[in-house]
Amino acid sequence: MAELFERLADYFRFPFVRYALIVGVLIALCASLLGVTLVLKRFSFIGDGLSHVAFGAMAVAAVTGLTNQMVIVMPVTILCAVLLLKTGRNARVRGDASIAMLSVGALALGYLLMNLFPVSSNISADVCSTLFGSQSILTLTSWEVWLCLGLSISVVLIFLVLYNRIFAVTFDESFASATGIRVGVYNLIIAVTTAVVIVLAMNLVGSLLISALVIFPALSAMRVFNNFKSVTICSAAISVSCAVLGILVSVLWETPTGPTIVAADIVCFGAFFIIGKIRRGNT
Amino acid sequence: MAQLTCRDLCIGYENTPVVTGLTFDVEAGDYLAIVGENGAGKTTLMKTILGLVRPVSGEIRFSDGLKKTEIGYLPQQTMVQKDFPASVLEVVLSGFLASKGARPFYNRAERELARVNLERMGLDGFEKKSYRDLSGGQQQRVLLARALCATRKLILLDEPASGLDPKVTVELYELIRDLNRDGITVLMISHDIEAALTYANKILHIGREIFFGTTQDYRKSDTGKRFAGIGEVDHG
User: Fold this and answer.
1) What residue in B sits closest to A167 (Cα-Cα)?
2) For a Cys-Cys bond, which of A209, A212, B43, B173 suits A205, CB 3.0-4.6 Å?
3) Residue B154 — φ and ψ, nearest 5°?
4) Are the Cβ atoms of B97 and A229 closer than 8 angstroms?
5) Angle between helices A123-132 and A92-116 (to 10 degrees)
6) Cα–Cα distances in angstroms (integers) from residue A63 to residues A60, A72, A118, in the given order
7) Which residues pair with B31 in a beta bridge?
């Protein structure tokens, strides 16, 4: 055990490991906060769709040889988030179909582009790391670290300030807009912050696994807690601890970071599922 | 004095009219029941009054010092709410959102008033309970308490008793009647024509025929007789 901590201390001498942990925790926090709303609004699939769009945009950015890929990925994903929200609203039946179309389309075209215009000799490794995150959290440039820090802190602040409005819009849109809350504006804010979180989370877990980061902590918390505040706090706590655990394990045993974090989230969900069952059985 | 006036109102979705030529006013203290066949546009009318749907043409005017943000609304329940993890207090407090403006959190006075409104609904001690664990009737009363937090003047109820058993339905109607007696204007959509005739003092019937007037006049009118099955029914 002592040896393990020594090795850990060794790793933490490197700034990039410390950055990875800080950024990872913040991203996990943002994802879980939004996750509660997205799951309750039945919007989980939007997160999934957007992450594939982000992959496509990333491929375009890689092919065009941009060093700063965020410049393309961020605006494209935000735009798609807004579009998806609009179509989901106007034509409820076609909403899920349009998301499916957009997401597989972006996935296919992204991979096609990366194959047609390879930027490195090992395409499958590139693709794999974009899809599953692998070690990319450990290779962030300092500019990316600052961007992640700035954006995720803003997401948390936005969430705190708008907490009660987000609750109202999530619980009952018609009541909220009837009493004069501009529901459209808040839905737009939710969509845009979701897009931001998804792009950030690509660094941590890769684009295929982002939904896990959004959905699992919220669902786990809902198994056990019965009010919105506790669910939100618990979801954030679960997500942050799983991220810390996942990053540490992946550093120590050299497992891919993203899947390790998600595995921790799954185990956590299992535990909360059982706790929830027992609790409900008793009452 | 009229709190709400509708003149020559035409309602519908995306410029396809559902009902045309609605003219009626609601005075302070009225209990207006909106009745009519399924699909006649009752909910659309309510949403139009609330500003959730644009009127196709015509005019809706609030007066008597009533602001648009001072309306309480009890919508039909959605699927999302059925298993929503929220405490009763959280739900009721959200009624204050519009009036609290830019302030991010609720203050003590609002918390206190939320408790008072819960008490009015016979739900004292329910603050910490989870909304999803309540019975259908209790959930409706929580939403009514929330509506009371949003208004002191006018509440709009969309089928408040749908899905409730007869005993709970009567209890809910009596609570609403008490609110009306306390001076709150009530606009209620109801399938339950019996309840509408019992509790409301005015009836708005929409559909193929349109009727607006007092409950007594409605009972005597052809529309009322046909729809409520009062007296001789002439199917012609």
Assistant:
1) B94
2) A209
3) -140, 125
4) no
5) 150
6) 5, 12, 7
7) B186
The per-residue pLDDT for range B160-212, each reduced to its tens digit, is 888 788 888 888 898 899 889 988 899 999 888 888 888 999 989 888 888 88
CA-based nearest residue to B3, from B72, B76, B75: B72
Rounded distance between C-alpha atoms, residue A24 and residue A29, angstroms:
9
So what CATH class is B1-66+153-236?
Answer: alpha beta
Residues of A with CB below 8 A from B78's CB? Answer: 172, 174
Whether the CB of B97 is below 8 Å from some CB of chain A: the reply is: yes
**Paired tokens of B66:** 């009533």
- Residue B150 in tokens: 């949003």
E strand residue ranges, chain B: 2-13, 16-27, 31-35, 57-62, 71-74, 154-158, 185-189, 202-205, 211-214
The ipTM estimated for the assembled molecules is 0.83
Measured N-to-C along each axis, helices A142-161 and A15-40 cross at an angle, to the nearest 10 degrees, of 30
Report the distance separating Cα B143 and Cα B13, nearest Å: 27
Q: Do B73 and A164 touch (CB under 8 A)?
A: no
Residues 112-131 of B with CB under 8 A from A: 128, 130
Chain B residues whose CB is inside 8 A of the A175 CB are: 73, 75, 94, 143, 146-147
Question: Would the CB atoms of B78 and A172 count as touching at under 8 Å?
Answer: yes
Q: For residue A240, what pLDDT is reported?
A: 94
Per-domain boundaries in chain B: 1-66+153-236, 77-151
Predicted model pTM? 0.84
Residues of A in contact with B93 (CB under 8 A): 164
| B78 and A CB contact within 8 Å | yes
Give every CB contact of residue B118 below 8 A, 6+ residues apart in sequence: B88, B89, B92, B124, B126, B127, B142, B145
E strand or H helix at A190, and its extent?
A: helix A183-205
